[in-house]
Amino acid sequence: MMTDPIADMLTRMRNAIRVKKSYVDIPASKMKAQIARILLERGYVKNVKYIEEEVQGKLRVYLKYGENNESAIEGLKRISLPSRRVYVDKKSIPRVMGGYGTAIISTSRGIMTDKECRELGLGGEVICHVW
Fold first, then answer.
1. Domain 76-130 has CATH 3.40.50.1820
2. Domain-by-domain residue ranges, the chain?
3. Which backbone phi and psi does 129 adopt, to 5 degrees?
4. Which of 12, 79, 95, 101 could form a disulfide with 131 if both were Cys (CB 3.0 to 4.6 A apart)?
5. Reported pTM
6. For residue range 28-71, what is the model confidence (pLDDT) as tens digits?
7. Helix or strand run (H / E) with residue 111
């Protein structure tokens, strides 16, 4: 049994980037699909596909690399843990790497980036930072 599936997703992606894999398979869930969608929209990954399986299904995340084989994702960091949740209000939404990175935040209106939260004036639980 897994205690933190989001941390598992980020670790699988981090490990795949280290060994220059073209894609990584992750057990699917609605929250992971939303996080993968944000990574796709922000240009951190090439593509995301859902692969149907009997019980759970899986997300196949195609990783993005530059001309010199450097990854589009420099770092992934889990912020809010099951044992220590991190919440922010609309005034204290974090800026990752001075605005170059992205904070992924779970709000009452769904999972959004830090930029979207600032525009809508929403706070929530900070899931992770990507840069």
1. no
2. 5-63, 76-130
3. -115, 140
4. 101
5. 0.92
6. 999 999 999 999 999 999 999 999 988 889 999 999 999 999 99
7. strand 110-113
